[in-house]
């Protein structure tokens, strides 16, 4: 199966110079140009298109779960279903900018109203279908992909040093930034509106944590399975079961989705899993446990180092900016494997950790908070001076490190495991690069989100951070892009808006307890999920980057040739001796740590090579 770069989406230009010159990629499936607006659409999947009528132009990338209800509410019930663009046009006429709040599912769209000389665009509550935009002289460009926005010749293509720094901090570039100074991402749950007088960004949705403590734990143990079942049930009728599959990592989320799909569809779900011939990384046994338990039609595939080499060269073309999550590799091959078996839609379990409290970092945070509850005079006057005075070895070193992190306030502490936080920016970057950036740029974004979630409990505020960063800017980008590269559409039942809002009412002390993540979720799902899966340690589709970089000759040579030679582009920013030291770490005590970080630098270097070639 040949590799294909996903290009589906749209671009709309409003303003005095509403033109979209021909691009270097595939020709659009449809273009339009009229007074004050130009648009183009690349339609790879259902829901991607452009529609003109009722005095409006609508471009869209939709995958709604409430389309039938919308038709009825807008008086369109009965007869032939309207086109997706017509449905949006009717919604715009009925509700104006409030229309985005009426939609459920995944969506990105732009509506041009020539009578009001207004361009209105929005992305869904969690950024599943993204919107990016750029201001140009006397106009605005909006699109669903960065590459489409860059078709306009007046968009500023200069690289943003702060975005590069953020990428190396987080392995992805967080919204609202992109790698280009002139292009911005619309944050999840937001809209943008342009008129000749200017443009404005607004928010129509946000997660609000309102714990309901009027009911006991037994209520939540009964309610959670019902709500998860309802969420999955909204996706079952959207596609032909013969053409639908489920990712199955063997974790609680993918297993729950596959299990409820099997029950609600009345037939075994078609489940797809990835394995590795590497101790400590292969989790197919858990996937098989879930498949046997629910009676799914299970399919296994294995990823090899040779396949990593095969895909690496394509990644800079898939992602319009650097993206450093190595799980893109197993995600792509799992989706491609499903496509070879006739699957056109895959259901994924992303979002469960962030709504039910599944990450170990939430548990670790409670450990730090416990220390901070010790009276200040005892901590500062007795414990910390004593621990500092002891030799920093063994248990004492761990205690010193624990105290240091405990004294960092959130949200900074939540990201203090990070390479740049641990090593210090001056050890990683050249001084001339640091002179161009704000080393606090990522943390400023994190602090803004952390403050926006107040007055929620600290656990919920960390969940909120992960919904904004880990879900929107990392996990969804990873899974959506790679499944589409395989020719498959992906859906996320656990990011159903009603389910997310329901989980925001679960008291945080029931989500995460000392030593126990997903506390009430696991108790609620006991009996539905196999006990082995409920008790397993989280892993997912992690790639054994470190061991493979160390032992596979071609991968090791690729790392050396890309990062350890004087011609490496990123050496303009990164200290060569730091890259050398990181490479040596592959053969030390923490090859996974070294390999994971080398991957991030390698992807950046390969993306830079592609970007330079495009300019030349």
Give an overview of the whole structure:
With 616 residues, this protein is of the alpha+beta class. It has 27 helices and 17 strands. The strands form 3 sheets. It has a 6-stranded antiparallel β-sheet. The chain has a 6-stranded antiparallel β-sheet with strand order 4-5-6-7-11-12, covered by helices on one side.
Give me the secondary-structure topology.
Blueprint: E1 9-15, E2 30-34, E3 37-42, E4 48-53, E5 56-64, H1 67-73, H2 84-95, E6 105-113, E7 118-123, E8 132-136, E9 139-143, H3 146-149, H4 161-170, E10 184-185, E11 190-195, E12 198-203, H5 217-233, E13 244-247, H6 252-265, E14 270-275, H7 284-294, E15 297-302, H8 305-312, H9 315-318, H10 328-340, E16 345-347, H11 352-356, H12 360-372, H13 376-389, H14 394-406, H15 419-423, H16 425-428, H17 431-434, H18 441-452, H19 458-485, E17 489-491, H20 497-503, H21 508-511, H22 519-525, H23 531-535, H24 545-551, H25 553-563, H26 576-584, H27 591-615
Helix pairs in contact: 5-6, 5-20, 5-22, 6-7, 10-19, 12-14, 18-19, 24-25, 24-27, 26-27
Describe what is shown at a glance.
The chain is α+β, with helices and mostly antiparallel strands and 616 residues long. The protein has 27 helices and 17 strands. The two termini are 31 Å apart.
What strand line-up does the widest sheet have? 2-3-1-9-8-10
Helix content: 40-55%
Major sheet: 6 strands, antiparallel
Sequence stretches where pLDDT stays below 50 over 5 or more residues = none
Count of helices? Answer: 27
The value of Rg in angstroms is 24 Å
